[in-house]
């Protein structure tokens, strides 16, 4: 029997303090190091994304200046 995944299986809560920061290479590495994400997906404004839900994937939504708007599992 498989164990259920925790609600924050991608580590979004652990890196939530980065909300509002500019997503540059240093910030991305910090997020990768501290989250438990299997995969990180950066979502640009007006970018179309697949709707498949992957609990271990961390979605980072950014604005035109690459400021982090949200971090969520998905």
Task: Give a nutshell description of this structure.
By secondary structure, this protein is an alpha+beta fold.
Please tally the helical runs, counting DSSP H or I stretches of 4 or more residues: 1
Overall spatial form: globular
Helical content band: 10-25%
User: CATH H-level name... which superfamily?
Assistant: Trypsin Inhibitor V, subunit A
SSE sequence, one letter per element:
HEEE
Beta content: 15-25%
**Spans with pLDDT under 50 lasting ≥5 residues?**
1-5
Indicate the CATH architecture.
2-Layer Sandwich
Largest sheet: 3 strands, mixed
**Tally of discrete structural domains:** 1
Q: Can you offer a commentary on this structure?
A:
This protein has 74 residues and is α+β, with helices and mostly antiparallel strands. The chain has one domain (16-73): Trypsin Inhibitor V, subunit A (Trypsin Inhibitor V, Chain A), CATH 3.30.10.10. The chain contains one helix and three strands, in the order αβββ. The protein has a three-stranded mixed beta sheet with strand order 1-2-3, with no helix packed on it. A hairpin with a 5-residue loop joins strand 2 (57-62) and strand 3 (68-73).
Give me some keywords for this one.
alpha+beta, 74 residues, Trypsin Inhibitor V, Chain A, disordered N terminus, single chain, 14% helix, three-stranded mixed sheet
List the helices and strands and how they pair.
Blueprint: H1 25-34, E1 39-43, E2 57-62, E3 68-73
